[in-house]
Amino acid sequence: MTRQPATLSFDIGGSSIKAAVVAPDGTLQGALVVHATPRPAVPDGVLLVLTQLASGLAFERVSVGFPGVVVDGITLSAPNLDGGWVGFPLADELGRRLGRSVKVANDADLAGLALIEGRGVEMVITLGTGMGAGLYLDGRLVPNLELGHHPFGDGRSYEERVSDRELAVIGTERWKVRVLETIAQIRAVWNFRRLHLGGGNARLFQPSELPADVALADNRAGVLGGACLYRESSTPRA
Ligand code: BGC
């Protein structure tokens, strides 16, 4: 069996940046470290935090979950960070600074890779600063589904209705009703077999409050998916 290298996995969020080394067997090696996202969240400031978090850690390769559209290691949007991320070559720039191979994917896409069962249509929704969404068919990712920005109900987008900021305004109980409405709407359109509900605010739900086809996700998925990113990209594409 070929030895799998340890992956330093970053999860960049609107309020915090998480980092952990994921061991070859897919488990966390050491602690998960959390650092506040610098404000303004410009590329240089975020890169500085990433390199500081990496120092002193043993790893062979790097993965990054990024809160926006990512194509070929280039970040194309970042609604909850800074406009300077549009067209930023994050994989190359971080690779240069850390001297390792770096893969970057959308944060929700990456988290889902650690959660999916690999059968039929599965989705992930992450609830945090923004609303992330991932779509998978038989375990294969359909990247960059920006469902959070789709208008719904009163004309505001899903993200505007269930964001962290909105939670603070309307309170937990009303917010939960909105999340369940969002899930019902997504189910009616996408007919998922299983939806994984993750992100920091998913912990406000008890499993018993969710429909049977919705699973509460391990909140560490945002970093655990980093190692899967290497597996996913090594799978032959149809
Ligand atoms: C972004 C998504 C991201 C989500 C969660 C949204 O605002 O558009 O790409 O996955 O926030 O971070």
Explain this structure to me?
The chain is 31% helix and 26% strand. The strands form three sheets. Strands 3-2-1-4-7 form a five-stranded mixed sheet, with helices on both faces. It contains seven helices and twelve strands. It has two domains: 7-107, 2-Layer Sandwich (Nucleotidyltransferase, domain 5); 115-216, Nucleotidyltransferase, domain 5 (2-Layer Sandwich), CATH 3.30.420.40. The chain starts with 6 loop residues before the first strand and ends with a helix. By secondary structure, it is α/β, with parallel strands linked by helices. Residues 67-68, 79-80, 106-108, 126, 128, 130-132, 146, 148, 159 line the site of beta-D-glucopyranose (BGC).
How would you summarize this macromolecular structure in one to three sentences?
The chain is of the alpha/beta class and 238 residues long. Helices cover 31% and strands 26% of the residues.
Tell me the span between the first and last alpha carbons.
26 Å
Distinct ligands, ions and cofactors found in the model:
beta-D-glucopyranose
Query: Low-confidence spans: pLDDT under 50, at least 5 residues?
Result: 234-238
* Total helical elements: 7
Strand content: 25-35%
**For the record, what is the CATH homologous superfamily label of the largest domain?**
ATPase, nucleotide binding domain
Overall shape: it is globular
What is the strand tally? Answer: 12
Structural class given helices, strands, pairing?
alpha/beta
CATH class division of the largest domain:
Alpha Beta
Query: According to CATH, what is the topology of the largest domain?
Result: Nucleotidyltransferase, domain 5
Helix content: 25-40%
Any guess at the CATH architecture of the largest domain?
2-Layer Sandwich
Secondary-structure element order, N to C: EEEHEEEHEHEEEHHHEEH
Biggest sheet overview: 5 strands, mixed
Order of strands across the widest beta sheet?
A: 3-2-1-4-7
Give the tally of structural domains.
2
* Radius of gyration based on Cα positions: 17 Å
Overall residue-averaged pLDDT value: 94
